[in-house]
């Protein structure tokens, strides 16, 4: 057997050392690649769950579908906590459930979940309107349940709706203007409520909500609040004659039912 020279032994030791050094580097790269692949899979899974939830939202008038959608979007956020699309949709689903359930406990939980999801959406994408709008909507729903909660939320609701207007003035048929008008109608005067200002704001921005039945309903309510009954009747009759937007049938039905009730007050 040949005895290695000192130089050969040094070369062997150096090669062994380099090999040992390379092992953790290779392992680290593999771990990074695995993490990237898993993150991509999570995002893909979340996107699929969001798509499933969108189909359920079309059937939201059946509250069981709304509840299913909330579960799906919760799973989407568990898979991808950075999904803006899942967060704002969860806030939207939660608002609809809170606004339509007859169970007071479920209503409170729904608005609470909607506020949490809305805040997450705003944190993820402050420059997009959906998160701000549905956060404000859920705050408004919660405020209607509790006078104390409402007193503390009015300024925040206004800020969120004003942010929506700043980002997209015509968002959902002027819905942010509609919400501001509702705040002016329902808030106590000592907290900034003002029926006359509600009328002025809704009239001024009617071009955005011209085909929005809920916008028209808020305008009719504002007219009644300032005793403009003829104008209120005009809006209410217009609601009853409007062709519903197929994407907003539940909202159309809500507006029509309320309009029929208000016609008696407008006589």
Q: In words, what does this structure look like?
A:
There is one protein chain. The chain has 267 residues and is mostly helical. It has two domains: 41-153, Serine Threonine Protein Phosphatase 5, Tetratricopeptide repeat (Alpha Horseshoe); 169-267, Serine Threonine Protein Phosphatase 5, Tetratricopeptide repeat. Helix content is 82%, strand content 0%. The protein has helices at 6-57, 63-79, 84-100, 104-124, 129-145, 147-167, 171-186, 195-204, 206-209, 213-225, 229-241, 249-265. Helix 2 packs antiparallel against helix 3. The chain starts with 5 loop residues before the first helix and ends with a helix. The model has no long low-confidence stretch (mean pLDDT 89).
Task: Write out key terms for the chains shown.
single chain, 267 residues, mainly alpha, Serine Threonine Protein Phosphatase 5, Tetratricopeptide repeat, 2 domains, 12 helices
Layout of helices and strands, plus pairs?
Layout (H helix, E strand, L loop, with lengths): L5 H52 L5 H17 L4 H17 L3 H21 L4 H17 L1 H21 L3 H16 L8 H10 L1 H4 L3 H13 L3 H13 L7 H17 L2
Helix pairs in contact: 1-2, 1-3, 2-3, 3-4, 3-5, 4-5, 5-6, 5-7, 6-7, 7-8, 7-10, 8-10, 10-11, 10-12, 11-12
